[in-house]
Amino acid sequence: MTMTYRKELKLELGDMLFSVITIANSFDIDLEEALNMVLNENG
After folding, report:
1. What is the DSSP letter of 27?
2. CA-to-CA distance for 8 and 28, rounded, in angstroms?
3. Phi, psi for 30 (deg, rounded to 5)
4. CA distance 35 to 30
5. Within 13 Å and on the Cβ side, how many CA atoms surround 39?
6. Which pLDDT does position 9 carry in this prediction?
7. Is 1 strand, coil or helix?
8. Which pLDDT does position 1 carry in this prediction?
9. What pLDDT is stored for residue 25 in this prediction?
10. pTM
11. Nearest by Cα to 31 from 40, 13, 22
């Protein structure tokens, strides 16, 4: 994986995280709770 590709991937993942956090906040969703629900469901 080239450094340029890693940088682009890092930026895209950052954008995705920002979007998920923003959406969760607007719907008053606790992301830690949501993640735990998914992990417990699949564990």
Report:
1. T
2. 30
3. -80, 110
4. 9
5. 6
6. 98
7. coil
8. 84
9. 98
10. 0.77
11. 22
Scored b (16 or more CB within 10 A) or e, 26-37 reads: eeeeeeeeeeee
- CA of residue 25 relative to chain centroid, distance: 13
Residues 19 and 11: their CA atoms lie apart, in Å, by 12
Contact 40, 32 (CB under 8 A): no
DSSP 43: -
- Tens-digit pLDDT profile for residues 1-43: 899 999 999 999 999 999 999 999 999 999 999 999 999 987 5
CA 6/CA 25 separation, integer angstroms: 28
User: Do 31 and 24 touch, CB atoms closer than 8 A?
Assistant: yes
H helix intervals, 1-43: 3-26, 31-42
